[in-house]
Hints:
Elements: H1 8-22, H2 33-42, H3 48-60, H4 66-71, H5 74-81, H6 87-104, H7 107-111, H8 115-123, H9 130-140, H10 150-158, H11 168-179, H12 183-199, H13 217-221
Helix pairs in contact: 1-12, 2-3, 2-9, 5-6, 8-9, 10-12
Amino acid sequence: MRRLGLDRDSLRTVHERLRSAYGAQAWWPADTRFEVMVGAVLTQNTAWRNVERAIGNLRAADRLNPADIVSSSHEQLARWLRPSGYYNVKARRLRAFCEALLAAGGEQALEAMPTAELRRFLLGIHGVGPETADDILLYAYGRPVFVVDAYTRRLFSRLGMTRGDEAYDRLRLGVERELGPNAGVFNELHALIVRHAKEVCAPRPRCAACRLRPMCPAGQTGS
């Protein structure tokens, strides 16, 4: 496999400069492991504030657990999830996830699975793609898996580390190879990338405010 334009020193520099800019992020924003998993399913194609509203609805209804989600009607579940967008689709996906979780024996049964096995299990659930699976692996179970999302692709492409169209697992494995199996590093780096991409390296970037500008070809040329 041809190496990507990623290297350990550059990735560490990105991490250090973003941490200096924003401080520790302490991700994922949730009270329980199950809430992390629900958030990972619901955050597809929506802003996090909308996910928080949907989770708040489940909590207010005392239904923020897999058994009660499965036993709820589709119509009721969709109403609770309405703030997250695509609520009928997400109701089906969240139900499928909870059914699979219960059938497997619950959270502790997933904890006992080796990382590769757990990733295969998650990817076998309806509506769970690589990014959602890796969110769950990293943030709910502390496994050393790097999450690739649109923010990661945008930042790495602008920095000249990637083209921006690499296959998901190729980019994920490239970062994991360079930084080694360290869940804490992957957690913090991904969280910092998300923060930076929202606040500075947006679709219309604020390059003048960017701590990464000295190492960014796009920022230096204004493109």
